[in-house]
Amino acid sequence: MFSKILVANRGEIAIRIIRSCKEMGISTVSVFSEADRDSMHVALADQSVCIGSASLADSYLNAERIVSAALATSAEAIHPGYGFLSESPHLAQLCETYRIAFIGPSSDIIKKMGDKDAAKRIMSEAGVPVIPGSGILEDIESALLAAEQIGYPVMIKARAGGGGRGIRQVKTPDEFENAYMTAAHEAREAFGDGALYIEKQIFPAKHIEVQLLADEYGKIICLAERECSIQRNNQKLIEESPSPVVDNALRDKLTEASMKAAMAVGYVNAGTVEFLLDKEGNFYFMEMNVRLQVEHAVTEQVTGIDLVKWQIRIAAGVPLDFEQEDIVLMGNSIECRINASAPGQVEFFHVPGGPRVRFDSALWTGYTVPPHYDSLLGKLIVHASSREEAIRKMHAALCELVIDGVPNNIDEQLEIVSDERFQKGEYYTDFIKGLN
Fold it and tell me: Looking at the predicted structure, is the pLDDT value of residue 436 above 70?
């Protein structure tokens, strides 16, 4: 087992990883930008290293500086968390070069799954259902022809996409050119790769994802599904597990497809296979996330499995010590992402309590939320014996949560969980558009 791990992230996920390391008796190193010098993840780690200015390029997206910090502090492994460099083959490759364990899959797997077009081809060959679509588009003329052949409405997607960027819905040919150019520009800015492809839009659809763990000895365990259909601009707002529409028969099919996906690329560590589910119960592969997900906590709540600890164990060569039949879902869990709508200073901060209520955050009274990074303030997670009880528990917890001084979306989350469509589980990825 590792004796020291560098956490290449910030905010609540850095704290989450540090906590698991402490429980495992592993020393931690945090990295931080000048804007985060007074942040909680810096104080909680055993060591900390400033890696640059507030600019992402100078700090959390600078793989060379992160690896240099690991070498300088004799860290044996790097945990990338989610976002930033967690899906960067470059960081993983640097770790391989300098013999530092990367807590995630290999750089080769990250490259394969990072190319969304190539990933779809791999999955199709492995027998995983994929959404009808095109290959990489050469120009606007060939793109228009492909869209006509597939049939509107279509989704334009970036080959190197992620986090909802480089994606545009197109309903008619008249909208196509502007959407195509906008998506290409956004993809170049976000990923340095403007290549696009087209998929048939599955509508209405639910966004269902399957969490898995895979060790280096070939064992793959699927930890059931999460429902992630409450989204704005392809960014998730609420997640729950299990999905209110997935029965045991469908869960078995999703598990089988996810295992095929992992086996097709020789996957190792924690990963998530994402699907679109239509009203008829047909599901289609969207992508595979080669990292810990923001919403991993709901899976932890219903399975009792600490995903971060298992990420670390797998990277250290420890085999999974349980079987697929050991995975038994216990109740229901819901997570609300609490986001800031503007930077500011936290004037008063109160976290709700009670059995099985959890708020993962890096906030404290007096903390100044910087303008440079993601808007996530924290994740409010509840767990109960039934979905109905979990919804009531979430409503009560949202009413109790107070973050004064920073504009946030607590009231909107209350509106969502109070909505009849959410309470019945009859909601799709367009839910927000119909919210009063």
Answer: no
291 labelled catalytic: yes
Give residue limits of the domains in the chain. 4-103, 132-200, 205-434
Superfamily (CATH) of domain 205-434? ATP-grasp fold, B domain (3.30.470.20)
> Under CATH, what is the fold of the domain 132-200?
Dna Ligase; domain 1 (3.30.1490)
- Of 232, 226, 364, 247, the closest CA to residue 296 belongs to 226
Residue closest to 18 by CA, chosen among 105, 100, 79? 79
The 3-state DSSP class for residue 129 equals coil
**The one catalytic residue among 168, 291, 313, 358:** 291
* Separation CA 112–CA 148 (nearest Å): 28
Number of other CB atoms surrounding residue 203 within 10 Å:
15
Confidence check: pLDDT of 259 > 80: yes
pLDDT in tens, 365-412: 999 999 999 999 999 999 999 999 999 999 999 999 999 999 999 999
150 conformational bin, left if phi > 0, alpha if psi -120 to 50, beta if neither:
alpha
Pairwise pLDDT comparison (58 vs 162), residue with the higher score: 58
In terms of Cα–Cα distance, which of 308, 318, 255, 311 is closest to 128? 255
How far apart CA 304 and CA 371 sit, in angstroms, is: 35
Give the pLDDT confidence of 179-237 residue by residue, as tens digits: 999 999 999 888 889 999 999 999 899 999 999 999 999 999 999 999 999 999 889 99
Which two structure tokens, joined as six digits, stand for 133? 């679509």
Tell me which residue of 249, 224, 355 sits closest to 300, measured CA to CA: 224
4-103: CATH class: alpha beta
Contacts 24+ apart (CB under 8 A), 259-262: 259/212, 259/220, 259/222, 260/123, 260/126, 260/127, 260/128, 261/123, 261/126, 261/128, 261/285, 261/288, 262/212, 262/214, 262/220
Instruction: Tell me the C-alpha distance between 120 and 112, whole Å.
Output: 10
